[in-house]
Amino acid sequence: MLDQDYRNYIEANFLRANEEIDEYQLSEWREGLWEVPIVKRTAKRRKRTRLLLVQTMSTGESEACRQLSKVFTGPGVKKHLPSEQGDFYLQQGLVMKLLDFESDEKSIKSQTYVMGLPLFRYIQQQKNEQKAGRDAEILGIEQRYSELGSIPYTRTIPGRSEYITMLDELFEELLAYLKGDSVKKEDSFYRWRWHKQMQFLHFIVAYLHMMKTQELFDWKEIGARYYGMIGGSKQFDPYKHDFLQVLEERGFPPVSVAGLQSFGSIAHISFSGSIQGSMSSFRHGCTHSVTDQEVFVDTFRTDATHLWLVENRGILTRFTSEKDFLKETNSLMIAVDGQLRSAVKRLIGELAKCSSIQTVLVWTDYDEAGIQIARSIYETIKQTEHAPVWKWIVPGKDRVVTDFDTYRETVQACIRLRQSEQEEELGGADEWRKWIQH
Predict the structure, then answer these.
(1) What span, in angstroms and rounded, lies between the C-alpha atoms of 123 and 292?
(2) Residue 320 contacts by C-beta under 8 Å, 6 or more apart in sequence?
C-alpha cells in the first residue's frame, strides 16, 4: 500500500484535471520503489497518460537536499537530468521520475525528474526556519526602536524634529512591509535582499538614536554606538551610498540637518532673481545660490511673475549676462542642475506656491533625461492653488508648448533625429520675451 503522505503529495501537486492514480496498476517494484500510473478519466474510458516512479524509503542526506533545492524550487519544476544522475537521486527518494506517454499509452513522449516528498519537506523546513529567524530579527529591531521612545529630545535645532518624524514614519512603513502588512512600493529599498533591508532598518534606529542624543556626530559613530563592539563603526559602510540615496529619494533634508557632519558636501542651488527668506534676501543682478541645508531650515518666497526652471547652470549664466533681462521681465530663474534633489524639489515647490507667479517656464536638454527632469518638475509643483500657466521650451520653429504631453511628444520626435543640449538653441533676449508673451 502506497504511503498516504506520498499519495496526498502526488494528488495535490501532480494530477491534472480529471486525472487520478490507477489503483489497479499501482505496484511496488521492489522494497520502497513504486510505480504510480496516472490515468485520465473520460466519459467512455480511462486513458493512461503518465507514470511516476517513486522511492518511499528515503536515504538522502541534507547536503544532497541543499544542492537539489537550488534546482527544484517547487513541485511544479521539471528537469531533464542525465539518467545516471537522476536515477541516483531517485534511489535516495529525493526526486521522482515522471514519464509522459504518447496517445498510444505505451510510447514515452518525455522523461523528466520532479521534486520528491523528502526534498519538498526539506525545503518547507528551511522556509519555516528562515521565517522563524526573520520573525525573531524583526522582534529584536522592534524592541530597539521602541526603546528610543524613552529617550527625551528637547533640542531646538532647526529642521531636526521634522527629520526625526520623517524617519519614524519611514521605519514604520518599511517594517510593516517586511512583516507582510503592506504592499511593495517603487523605490530602492523594495529591490534589495532581506539582509540589506534589515540593515537599513538597523541604520534608521541607530541614526535616530544619534539625532536624539547628539547635536553633531560622525558617520562612524552611528554604527559604533549602535553595535557597541569592535568593528561596529564599519557595519553600515558597505551600504552608505545606497542608504543615503533612499533618504534622498524620499525627500529627506540633507544629512547636515540631522547632525551628520563628516559625510558628503554642501550642495548649492544656483539662481538669479528676487528671493526672500527669514535669514537672507536676494535681489536681481548677479547669480546667487542657497545651500540644501538653508532650504530645509528656512522658508523662501518671491515676488517674481515668471519662474524659469532650467536644467543647466550654463543657461542661467547666459540669461544673467543679458543686462537687466530678468529684472525687466520680473523673472526668477533656477538651475535645477540635473535630476531633482530633495532640496531642489522643496525650494521650487515652495516658490511656485507664491501668488505672484503667473508663469512657469521649463527648459531642459532635448533627450530622455531632460524629459524625465521636466516630468519631475511638473509632478513636484503642478498642484499649486493659483494654477500658473505652464510653458515648455522645445526645439524647432514654435519653441513653446503649453502642455506636458505635447512637450514630451515634440522632444521625443527631436530625439529620433538627434539629441541636443539647451545651449544649441539659446536664442536671445528678444526671443525669450516672445516665449514669455506666447
Answers:
(1) 50
(2) 272, 286, 287, 326, 333
Nearest to 360 by CA among 407, 320, 321, 324: 407
Burial class (CB in 10 A: 0-12, 13-18, 19+), 363: buried
Condensed to tens digits (0 to 9), the pLDDT of residues 154-185 reads 666 777 888 899 999 999 999 999 998 877 77
Per residue in 315-342, pLDDT (tens digit) is 999 999 888 899 999 999 999 988 888 8
CA 208, 213, 218, 224: dihedral to nearest 10 degrees?
-80
Distance between CA 334 and CA 349 in Å, rounded? 12
| pLDDT (average), residues 45-69 | 90
Do the beta carbons of residue 247 and residue 257 sit within 8 Å? no
SS3 9: helix
On average, the pLDDT of the chain sits at 89
Mean pLDDT of 379-397: 84
Tell me how far CA of residue 391 lies from CA of 148, 306, 356, 372, in angstroms.
Answer: 48, 10, 16, 16
Q: Phi, psi at residue 276, to the nearest 5°?
A: -125, 135
Task: Compute CA 90 distance to the chain's CA centroid, rounded to the nearest angstrom.
Answer: 42
3-class secondary structure for 179-226? CCCCCCCCCHHHHCCHHHHHHHHHHHHHHHHHHHHCCCECHHHHHHHH
Calculate the CA dihedral of residues 356, 362, 363, 369 and round it to 10 degrees: 140
Cell numbers placing 130: 528562515
Cα gap 210→204, rounded to integer Å: 10
Residues in the chain: 438
User: What confidence score (pLDDT) does residue 155 get?
Assistant: 67
Distances (CA, A) of 118 to 57, 180, 210, 421: 10, 28, 49, 63
Side-chain half-sphere CA neighbours of 312 within 13 A: 15
Query: H helices of 21-82, where?
Result: 62-69
Buried b (16+ CB within 10 A) or exposed e, 29-58: eeeebbebbbbbeeeeeeebbbbbbbbbeb
**How far apart, in whole angstroms, are the C-alpha atoms of residue 33 and residue 357?**
82
Name the maximum alpha-carbon separation found in the chain: 99
Alpha-carbon torsion (401, 405, 411, 413), positive or negative? negative
What mean pLDDT do residues 210-236 have?
Answer: 89
**Are the CB atoms for 395 and 367 separated by under 8 Å?**
no
